[in-house]
């Protein structure tokens, strides 16, 4: 039976295993794009960021079962469990924090256009004056996941440009043009945008 480990001892163990470390970084970049943790300080250690991300997920009620399972998992099972934590984030829109995090990175105009809402509605949703409708929350979350995948390759300015530049992988359409007309994350266009962004981290997924 595996020993129960504390969070402080768990993170170094994750970082010692390439597959588990890659998944843990993936969780952390998603948590940051979703606004569950703040942007890393210039000299922040990845160990600290991962620990902060796991604590934030627990506080937000996301992937609690998976995080609890990490504490007693066999070392060979850690990567698979952390991958399930990342999957739980993918299935957990969190508009209360996502609006602020994404407006900081993308700006109000671009984010409103990507989410197909007016600037006035964005302001009300971001400020908590009105609840974010489910359809809009799912669009917002989809954008957050795309931004998380882009963050390892682009700075914030590059991410903003990425959405509006034509892409040969999208038949010379821009990603933003495929996020139009009250789109849904399950539509073909938005799925292609997500797959294109995810391809940037494909090499890490294979390790």
Notable characteristics:
2 domains; 0% strand; mainly alpha; globular; 12 helices
Report on the architecture of this protein.
With 207 residues, the protein is mainly alpha-helical. It folds into two domains: 7-90, no CATH class; 95-205, no CATH class. Helix content is 62%, strand content 0%. Helix 2 packs across helix 3 (46-60) and helix 2 packs across helix 9. The longest helix has 17 residues, at 134-150. The protein is globular.
Topology summary:
Elements lengths: L6 H9 L2 H16 L12 H15 L3 H7 L7 H13 L4 H12 L1 H8 L3 H8 L7 H17 L5 H9 L23 H11 L3 H4 L2
Helix pairs in contact: 1-3, 2-3, 2-5, 2-9, 4-5, 6-7, 6-9, 9-11
**Helicity level:** 55-70%
Multimerization state: single chain
Strand content: under 5%
Poorly predicted runs are 203-207
Number of domains: 2
Through-space gap between termini = 28 Å
How are helices and strands ordered from N to C? HHHHHHHHHHHH
Total strands: the figure is 0
Question: Rounded to an integer, what's the Rg over CA atoms?
Answer: 17 Å
Number of helices: 12
- Tell me, what's the shape? globular
Structural class: mainly alpha
Largest beta-sheet details? none
Average pLDDT across residues?
90
Short structural summary:
This protein is an all-alpha fold and 207 residues long. It has helices at residues 7-15, 18-33, 46-60, 64-70, 78-90, 95-106, 108-115, 119-126, 134-150, 156-164, 188-198, 202-205.
């Amino acid at each position: 039976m595996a020993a129960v480990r504390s969070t402080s001892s768990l993170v170094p163990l994750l970082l010692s295993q390439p597959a588990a470390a890659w998944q843990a970084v993936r969780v952390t970049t998603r948590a940051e794009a979703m606004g569950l943790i703040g942007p890393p300080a210039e000299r922040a250690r990845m160990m600290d960021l991962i620990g902060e991300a796991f604590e934030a997920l627990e506080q937000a009620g996301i992937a609690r079962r998976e995080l609890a399972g990490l504490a007693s998992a066999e070392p060979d099972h850690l990567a698979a469990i952390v991958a399930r934590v990342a999957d739980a984030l993918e299935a957990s829109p969190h508009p209360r924090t996502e609006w602020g995090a994404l407006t900081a990175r993308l700006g109000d105009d671009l984010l409103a256009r990507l989410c197909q809402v007016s600037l006035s509605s964005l302001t009300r949703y971001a400020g908590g004056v009105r609840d974010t409708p489910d359809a809009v929350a799912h669009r917002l979350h989809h954008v957050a996941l795309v931004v998380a995948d882009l963050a390892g390759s682009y700075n914030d300015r590059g991410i903003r440009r990425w959405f509006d530049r034509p892409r040969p992988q999208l038949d010379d359409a821009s990603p933003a043009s495929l996020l139009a007309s009250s789109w849904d994350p399950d539509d073909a266009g938005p799925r292609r945008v997500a797959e294109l962004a995810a391809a940037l981290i494909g090499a890490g997924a294979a390790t």
